[in-house]
Specification:
Length: 79
């Protein structure tokens, strides 16, 4: 599941690279990094078990919160 998620993120990066004209290689690396950060955040959120509501909200918010700063820094460095 982890490898599939990373491949999907890299594929989304390639698609975004075609749409924006930044190049597929750079966009694939950026998508892969975003996917890795999101998977780390999702793994951390999986340990939050007090209630289903808290688990579901943390499962959405935490991966986004973990990925956003890293994607910004990588995007500035690569593009």
């Amino acid at each position: 599941a982890v490898v599939l998620g990373l491949l999907a993120a890299a594929g989304a990066g390639v698609g975004a690279g075609h749409l924006t004209g930044t190049g597929t290689g750079t966009a694939a690396v950026l998508g892969l990094a975003a996917g890795a950060c999101a998977l780390v955040g999702l793994r951390v959120a999986a340990y939050d078990y007090p209630s289903r509501f808290v688990h579901m909200t943390a499962g959405v918010a935490l991966p986004l919160a973990a990925a956003a700063p890293a994607v910004y820094v990588l995007g500035r460095a690569l593009v």
